[in-house]
Amino acid sequence: MLKKLIEIVTPLLEDNSIKIDENTVLLTDLGLNSFDLVEMVCVIEDEFDISIPDKMFKTLITVKDVMNCIEELQ
Q1: In the CATH scheme, what is the code of domain 2-73?
Q2: CB 66 within 8 A of CB 60
Q3: 33-47 burial, b if ≥16 CB within 10 A, otherwise e?
Q4: Most exposed residue of 7, 24, 36, 56, measured as fewest CB within 10 angstroms of its CB?
Q5: What digits encode the pLDDT tens for the residues 1-42?
Q6: Could you please report the per-residue DSSP string of 2-38?
């Protein structure tokens, strides 16, 4: 799942050389803004055939949080 998330997030990055792992923080480490996060969530919802509720969206801080969210909703 990590590999798939890296494929989803990488096009949103200004610097594609950033190494991404489970502990990577979406906003500070990757430099994503709120628009990028919404775009990322939309792609994740389509890719994994899930719907991420707004209340859960605010808990997506690290890549691991995103992975846990996907696992919980599948």
Answers
A1: 1.10.1200.10
A2: yes
A3: eeebbebbbebbeee
A4: 7
A5: 999 999 999 998 988 788 999 999 999 999 999 899 999 999
A6: HHHHHHHHGGG-S-TT----TT-BTTTTT---HHHHH
Average pLDDT of span 56-68: 94
Write phi, then psi, for 18 (nearest 5 degrees).
Answer: -65, 130
pTM of the model: 0.89
The answer to whether 62 and 22 have CB atoms below 8 angstroms apart is: yes
* CA distances, 1 to each of 4, 37, 54, 55 (Å): 5, 18, 22, 22
One-letter amino acid of 32:
L
Cα separation, 41 vs 48, in Å, equals 10
